[in-house]
Design a protein that fits this description.
By secondary structure, the chain is of the alpha/beta class. It has one domain: Rossmann fold. It is 31% helix and 25% strand. The protein has an eight-stranded mixed β-sheet with strand order 3-2-1-4-7-9-8-10. Strands 5-6 form a two-stranded antiparallel sheet. The radius of gyration is 17 Å and the shape is globular. It starts with a helix and ends with a strand.
């Protein structure tokens, strides 16, 4: 997912010149590597979502990183709920069946994000990789519509992809019904890439204005990539 950072550099550069803080919604925080980069380098405000209620202790045990350390200032966490449930709650209103979920999401209702990250891995025995990213049930127009509804007008949806089969990949055409622009960023294998979807012309421009954020992202991306095609 680090490769996808370079694509959003123009957007983050513009945010640095304003008083508004960059706000990121991260669906699938895991150990929080990418989230820490956004906080440390961009001063971002992160709302992280992870189904695992033990994500905090896991990060500390295996990576010696605590979500209460100074490097995590700016991150708040919604844990113990699946990303789809949180997404529905943030998008649609009050759930009548899970009052704890309602309370966990209450302070985030009505917020709009500059970036929504989706990086959830699903085990898939039918895949040669043994994994499907994102999970199959995320690749639906209704889900993409909800994510778009949480973005500000110049925001971007960034999604890591590991393709298990052709039928799965073909469903990404649904992004074209939700966003004006969809970029496919090639990684080290044809079945692994990052998709960036947006309605903002900023992401379509080839501008690369000098600045702190641009320098930071360039240093992060140690392997070259190419935006080899629009996805539709």
């Amino acid at each position: 997912m680090l490769y996808g950072l370079k694509v959003i550099q123009n957007h983050l550069n513009r945010r640095e010149t304003s008083d508004a803080r960059v706000r990121v919604l991260s669906l699938g925080i895991g150990v929080g590597i990418l989230e820490r980069i956004f906080i440390k380098k961009f001063g971002a405000e992160i709302v992280g979502v992870d189904k695992d209620p033990d994500v905090m202790s896991f990060a500390y045990t295996y990576f010696r990183s605590s979500l209460v350390d100074d490097e995590w200032k700016g991150l708040t966490l919604i844990s113990g709920y699946c990303a789809l449930s949180v997404l529905s709650e943030l998008s649609n209103g009050i759930s009548k069946s899970n009052l704890k979920l309602v309370e966990a999401c209450r302070v985030y209702k009505g917020l709009r994000y500059n970036v929504v990250l989706l990086n959830i891995i699903d085990h898939d025995d039918l895949s040669g990789w043994g994994a499907c990213v994102p999970p199959r049930h995320f690749v639906e127009k209704s889900i993409f519509d909800k994510i778009k509804g949480l973005l500000d007008p110049e925001g971007a949806f960034v999604m890591q992809v590991i393709v298990p089969d052709i039928c799965y990949e073909e469903k990404f055409i649904l992004l074209g019904g939700c966003f004006r622009i969809v970029f496919k960023i090639a990684l080290n294998h044809k079945s692994k890439y990052v998709l960036v979807a947006t309605d903002s012309a900023v992401f379509a421009s080839g501008e690369n204005k000098p600045g702190r954020t641009s320098d930071v992202i360039t240093s992060l991306v140690t392997c070259s990539f190419n935006i080899d095609e629009t996805f539709y």
